[in-house]
Design brief:
4 strands; elongated; alpha+beta; four-stranded antiparallel β-sheet
Length: 135
Amino acid sequence: MGSGSTRRLRRLGLCWATSLLVWGCAASQPQREVTEAFRAFLADVRSGDQEKILATAPFLSSLPAKQKEAALQSFERLASQDPDKLSLDVSPGPGQTYLLRVDTLVVPFVKDGQGHWEISPVVTAVQHIDVVPAQ
């Protein structure tokens, strides 16, 4: 190989590495935003700021009182822990949803009309189909 080919290969490799780095940073942006939104939400839960809690989790306002209280208690338990010790894992979900996993809780986030991350209610339906051999 001549020195021109070597330079082209190096340049191509550098372009490839740069592209991967830019793509990786762009792909991790929503994960960082969701993590930051959740940490801010837990701070709002700790402070008891109902307006901010409902801004991030608007589905809470439509829940019956007992369900709302139960949901808030789950978040209060998380908020009472040291925020730096919470293990948060964010991954893409269906559509424009990102799923945040913390302890045994999965919290779905979507962007609202103003571009802010909010917690979205999720209805999970599991269907079980038994296959019975014909007699």
